[in-house]
Amino acid sequence: MTSFGEMGLTTTGRLTSDPELRFTTNGTPVASFTVACNPRRWDRESNGYRDGDPSFVPVQVWRDAAEHVAESLRQGDRVIVMGRWAQEHWTDDQGEKRSAWRLTASAVGPDLTFDTWKIHKSARDDVPPDDAWATASPVRPTPADSGAADSGTETAPADSAPAASSKPKTAAKPRTRKTAKSA
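Given the sequence above, the corresponding structure tokens read:
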């Protein structure tokens, strides 16, 4: 998601190499990869598609998503990337000021247009096991279930929401992170 005034971008393409996973000095994971976007246009003269000039989009993704990307994606995989353009500035070894554009991804996923994928959901370790909201199944009440047909209003059945607890809510336990070193 982008904020007002930011240059948001969604693109599709193929990874030019395996994602590179690194860690900042404070341990935050960041994965970098490049997406090759090859436009194809219908050519009436040849009665077929013609490849356009490819564009290469450098991408960075941070935190848990970075680890998921590095673990899941490989060179040649078709992906959809959504994020915002960010211009990086630095001074090179010769003292020259440099800049480059990079897509900072807020979401990366498989492009299912031509391929099928199996998704493996990560276990949520940030929700206490006794959190009824995390495990409750959504229930859509019907007027017959709640007796609302007589009163003209709908009320949820008693078992559709977790019971209120008299104990104070505790903070979620800290997240654990798998790293390349511990895996």
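The longest helix spans residues 63-72. Try to locate this feature in the token string yourself.
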